[in-house]
Amino acid sequence: MKRTKNTARPRVLRPGMRGWLGRGRGESFYVQAADEWRGTSVQVCGLWPFAVGTGTPMVGVPLGRHIHTGATLCCDPISWFQRAKLISNPSAFVLGKPGLGKSTLVRRMATGLAGYGVMPLVLGDLKPDYVDLIEALGGQVITLGRGRGHLNVLDPGEATGAAERLRAAGFTKEAAQVLADAHGRRHTMVSALVTIMRGAPPTDREETILDRALKVLDARHHGIPVLGDLLRVIQDGPQEVRAAALDRGDQGRYQAITENLEASLVGLVDGGRLGETFARPTTNPMRRDRPVVYDVSSIDDTDMDLQAATLLACWSAGFGTVNVANALADAGLEPRRHYFVVLDELWRALRAGRGMVDRVDALTRLNRQRGVGVAMISHTMSDLLALAHEEDRMKARGFVERSGMVICGGLPGAEMPQLTAAVPFSRAEQDLLTGWQDPPAWDPAAGQEAEPPGRGKFLVKVGGRPGIPIDVQLTEVEMGIHDTNKRWHTVSRIGALETQGSGAA
């Protein structure tokens, strides 16, 4: 019998995924992750199939990295609405406890959008958080407050010049519309100031008198009028105003009808609770071709009436400028401009006075038609639902429900029922948010608190889709601009100076 040679290959021992098992060998308990690179489909097409998609959108401002995968998330309400078509409303609502980076996140959006050609508009910076950023972008900083600056509510702004350009180009109807919008905005602001002064809105007859007096003032006054000029028109009682007052030709009756309105305007002109902030010519007129911030941080939180009136005036002036820019662009006289409006510390604005909720409500419903993106920032849902009237609370809840995207930082567990009633969050997402709001640990080596676990971490929610958890890391340039604790960097030396002085004596 012929024997055949065994040609089978000897068995080769190979290590397992974690190394060699057995005595004297050892196994690794940590497997180092493979290196990852990011590239376009053109650059990495030759590596197929050794490539995977990122899973996060890459359209918009780079906000941060996915906490679990490390993928970059690009996100902002204007890019996701205009280019990516991921949301139906160019707005974002940001929620989170203080000190976790909400304003920093929105400043990152504003910075990136400015690079895309979108103009940031901060219509009422109450802290301030955005002044340094707007200055770095070459924008316009408008300071308002007692003794710091004035905003004339009767100033039509750029509406008059825009109407002249439209008429010269043959757009007579559009010019009339721009002037009518400016008239309505000024009328609304005067009525709002009277409401804040009285604590109650003007009557229907007083509204009509104000409207007619403004028209008479525009027809007779040369230049830009102020509230004192409007007051004199009502005191003089021209025939057009007397007809609106229904005085029946009786001077005494006319004075009785206009007495309360005259008293309210006297309080606005001669420095009542609102001072002279709105009774003098505008100190620094707003421009439509640059980023703008209204710095109202000098107004104390206890001065609620002045804070409410100033915020309303800033919003009125800002959106009046946006309307002018849109009218000129529609006529082809200027390039199209888009604006990114930031409403920070929204809860303070809503509580500042009557009419604020309705103003924001109108803004969130018409931002698509106005060509603006909006970012609203508040601490918790409880802040929005703590308003005095149920009607206002329902409208405030609608701000979150209608937002194209909701971005949440660390939140307490008690907020979850109210939050999930407006936007669906899974149990895992809720646990993630409540974990981010935990207090920082004590670092015995440094002798101070460590960084809070939720600082810079946010969950981006769009509708019912799973949230995207990201970590926002600032560059060195941003750290210099986005510092909201500047006044705490220097330790107080008053006590040391007093001690030295007493020793020298």
UniProtKB/TrEMBL annotation:
Q: Which InterPro entries match?
A: P-loop_NTPase (IPR027417), T4SS_component (IPR051162)
Give the domain of life.
Bacteria
Recorded protein name is ATPase
Organism for this UniProt entry: Georgenia daeguensis
